[in-house]
């Protein structure tokens, strides 16, 4: 079986791109950076990988904590449906509570909870998940 050059390049590119963000593990700054750099084109699997970085054990990692908190607010502004679906699914209740806690306690004043509230309100459906997110964002003000 002979593979064509374009097919080999396509497979190599997909493989490289999938690993460019780093592993989907807790406290992974490379994944947060990848998410930040790809906000406008972020896919569901990339969002899921970003959410995998959140863990209570990351609180001691100051670089990760500050950067992930900032990017979390950016994700709310650009991909609110992903976050609403994440909270709605609540596959890992402890992680969901942790993420909501991060929304209720922004690391610095430059984050925009008011704008996030407006954007989350505009998402259709999933009223309970939206309510949980909105409560967290309102607590941050």
Structure description:
This protein is mainly α. It has eight helices and no strands. It has one domain. It has helices spanning 5-20, 29-37, 44-52, 62-78, 80-89, 93-104, 113-121, 127-139. Helix 2 (29-37) runs parallel beside helix 4 (62-78), helix 4 (62-78) packs across helix 5 (80-89) and helix 7 (113-121) runs antiparallel to helix 8. The longest helix is centred in the middle third of the chain and has 17 residues, at 62-78.
- Mind telling me the C-alpha Rg? 17 Å
Mean pLDDT, rounded to whole units?
A: 86
Which regions are unreliable across 5 or more consecutive residues at pLDDT < 50?
3-19
Order of secondary-structure elements:
HHHHHHHH
**N-end to C-end Cα span:** 62 Å
Oligomer: single chain
Structural class based on helices, strands and sheet pairing: mainly alpha
Tell me, what's the shape? globular
Q: Largest sheet, described in full?
A: none
Strand content: under 5%
Total beta-strand segments = 0
Helix percentage range: 55-70%
Q: How would the blueprint of this fold be written?
A:
Elements: H1 5-20, H2 29-37, H3 44-52, H4 62-78, H5 80-89, H6 93-104, H7 113-121, H8 127-139
Helix pairs in contact: 2-4, 4-5, 5-8, 6-8, 7-8
């Amino acid at each position: 079986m002979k593979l064509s050059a374009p097919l080999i390049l396509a497979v190599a590119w997909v493989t490289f791109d999938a690993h460019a963000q780093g592993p989907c593990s807790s406290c992974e700054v490379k994944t947060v950076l990848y998410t930040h750099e790809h906000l406008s084109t972020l896919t569901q699997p990339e969002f899921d990988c970003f959410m995998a970085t959140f863990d209570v054990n990351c609180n001691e990692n100051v670089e990760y904590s500050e950067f992930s908190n900032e990017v979390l607010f950016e994700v709310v502004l650009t991909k609110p449906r992903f976050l609403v679906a994440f909270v709605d699914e609540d596959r890992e209740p402890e992680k969901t509570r942790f993420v909501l806690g991060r929304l209720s306690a922004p690391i610095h004043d430059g984050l925009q909870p008011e704008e996030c509230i407006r954007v989350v309100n505009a998402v259709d459906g999933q009223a309970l998940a939206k309510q949980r997110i909105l409560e967290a964002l309102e607590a941050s003000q």
